[in-house]
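hiii, so i know i said id send this last week but things got crazy w the move. better late than never?? heres the sequnce for the chain we talked about at the cafe, plus the structure i predicted for it. fair warning i was half asleep when i ran it
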Amino acid sequence: MLDIKFIIANKELVREGLAKKGYEKIINVDELEQLYLNINKLKTSSQSMSEEKNKLSNSIKSASNEERPAIIAKSKEIGEELKKELEELDKLQAEFDLMMLKMPNMPSPESPVGPDDSGNVVRRKVGTPRVFDFEPKDHVELMEMNDWSELERIAKVSGSRTYAIKNELARLELAMHMMVLDKLAANGFTTITVPSISKEKPLYGQGYLPFSRDEIYYLPQDDIYLSGTAELILNSLRADEILNENELPILYAGFSPCFRREAGAAGKDTRGLTRVHQFMKTEQFVICKNDIAESEKWHQKLLAISEEVLQDLELPYQVLEVCTGDMGAPKYRQYDLEAWVPTQNCYRETHSCSNITDWQARRTNLRYRDNADGKVKYVHTLNNTGIATPRVLVPFLENHQQKDGTVRIPEKLQPYMMGKKFIGKNAK
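okay and structure toks below
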């Protein structure tokens, strides 16, 4: 959410930002301003009428018998007018609130401008895709030959886009999370496990709603939603609080199961582990001061940590800066990391790193008191994937496979795999 006063004072800048994000037909800045002015006018008018009605009501006791009927009649007349104005005020306020909830964050001047993912820019590539001296197998073939999965059986139980992995691969999945949690702890992050269920309000706070309702699982009997990321929970964990600046930054390494309907991905990536409805994720989440230099510093820090993770996993990857039309409503600036998938001959996303500035904090009313001037300000929030599984297992298995179907374990991961250098039926 943006500050309405900022919007009105910077209408051309906001129009430009809306156009860059493809929201120019969704949000009309002039209509929003007029709504705001009409609401303020009605608030002033209704307040005046309420005061006049109260004044008349208070005068009834001291009025003479002759004066009292006229005062009562006037009070009733004002009350009816006030009721109409308050009903109109409620209607306009609801329209205004919904439009403000649909208002995206303004993109960074540094972000590439583009209408969709075709406008994303590769900033750098790290590592060289492996040249195999044999025909590489895809991750599903590797799982099948090593007895690492129950994909067909679990589909009968839980439906499509689900997975069940077992034996060494199940341990590998958990090992990756432990490695990343240790890395984040070493960088000052507080490890926290959070629920995968949420009330509706946090979804508005995080920015899932009103934008992506069709991607969210909803349980109507309990009026509860399934979370697609620990960010959702962590973003509202301190909602409505006023923090002391000395508490900042707050760094969370949130671990949770995650759920996404993948409603917009019908027919895409249906094989194996690429797009599944339930997965596990370790999420990096930062709450810092309301200073763009400060939050951009943390943005680069989060990006560096996720690059370290891919380097520790010895995966070739590229850093993609996401363009304005592809980054989504909450984002000020965004990077994606994509790891090389040999059998698909392309890079696939493993991490998404975003600076949200104060857009989420305004929705959750999360603030802090500035030490320098004592003013209460909205915090900045940032998020980034620590590791998401099973998604990352796809490039991992394919890049580290051996001719005999075994999979090599990188040195940094070996301590979390009981020192094993290879896994698989033929591993020695």
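btw The domain at 117-423 is CATH 3.30.930.10 (BirA Bifunctional Protein; domain 2). thought thatd interest u
miss u guys!!
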